[in-house]
């Protein structure tokens, strides 16, 4: 009984301390061990917390936030359509890392490729869509950097569409928040950012491949709405996460 009472007292003290800490947000202290972080209100752009938020770092697959943004904007402008056929090139099919194992010469719909990027972080789908939207990967990267400047992403330089390790490819936590905020405006992609599991049909043999979201918060965090994970040996673990609670 004494142990039980002691436990309740300790629990009460802990809850009281937490209440005091968060009663005044000005005094709330977060101990974030990552090199860089930022917390932004997506509706206003107000920064609620930051740590080295403008430090230029490799973003790994979080790069794909910009890739998805340009695809969504091309869809909304009518430049491309969801049911457009995209022929997969040798270059796209040769991508390593996360992929859906596209084969050279096969045809895929824009919708399938976009879903594969958002859910499965597919590098091959990124390259296929970059070639389709931009005419080439190089031209698509030019569009990525142009859009970054328009959004005020002054800490960013993109060299590829998927975040695979390459020199001079970097962004910051602040810039990731800016492009993530912009991406979340598109209802089309929001559906896929919150998809936990799905499947795609790929290859000349039309094989069904199951895909699951690399962002485990979608399943385990109440209100999670996205956005993108990333990992390379150079970048380590990277995350753009969003959630909606009480209209915030």
Structure description:
The structure is a single chain. With 248 residues, this protein is an alpha+beta fold. The protein has a single domain, classed as DD-peptidase/beta-lactamase superfamily (Beta-lactamase). The protein is built from nine helices and eight strands. A two-stranded antiparallel ribbon has the order 1-2. A hairpin with a 4-residue loop joins strand 5 and strand 6. The chain is globular. The N and C termini lie far apart (43 Å). The N terminus is likely disordered.
Secondary structure class reads alpha+beta
Strand content: 15-25%
- Give the end-to-end Cα distance, rounded to a whole number of Å: 43 Å
Overall number of domains: 1
What key attributes describe this structure?
single chain, 248 residues, alpha+beta, Beta-lactamase, two-stranded antiparallel ribbon, 9 helices, 40% helix, disordered N terminus
């Amino acid at each position: 009984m004494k142990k039980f009472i002691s436990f309740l007292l300790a629990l009460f003290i802990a809850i009281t301390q937490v209440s005091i800490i968060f009663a005044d947000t000005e005094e709330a202290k977060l101990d974030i061990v990552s090199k860089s972080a930022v917390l932004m209100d997506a509706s206003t752009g107000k920064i609620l917390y930051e740590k080295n938020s403008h430090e230029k770092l490799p973003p790994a697959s979080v790069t794909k936030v910009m890739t998805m943004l340009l695809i969504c904007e091309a869809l909304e402008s009518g430049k491309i359509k969801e049911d457009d056929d995209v022929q997969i090139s040798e270059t796209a099919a040769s991508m390593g890392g996360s992929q859906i194992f596209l084969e050279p010469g096969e045809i895929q719909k824009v919708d399938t490729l976009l879903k594969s990027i958002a859910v499965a972080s597919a590098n091959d789908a990124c390259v296929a869509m970059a070639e389709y939207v931009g005419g080439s990967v190089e031209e698509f990267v030019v569009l990525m950097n142009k859009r970054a400047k328009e959004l005020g992403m002054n800490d960013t330089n993109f060299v590829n569409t998927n975040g695979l390790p390459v020199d001079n490819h970097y962004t910051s936590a602040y810039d990731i928040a800016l492009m993530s905020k912009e991406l979340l405006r598109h209802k089309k992609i929001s559906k896929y950012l919150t998809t936990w599991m799905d499947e795609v049909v790929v290859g000349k043999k039309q094989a069904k491949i199951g895909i699951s979201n690399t962002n485990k918060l979608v399943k385990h965090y109440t209100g999670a709405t996205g956005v993108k994970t990333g990992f390379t040996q150079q970048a380590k673990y990277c995350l753009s996460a969003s959630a909606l609670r009480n209209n915030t």
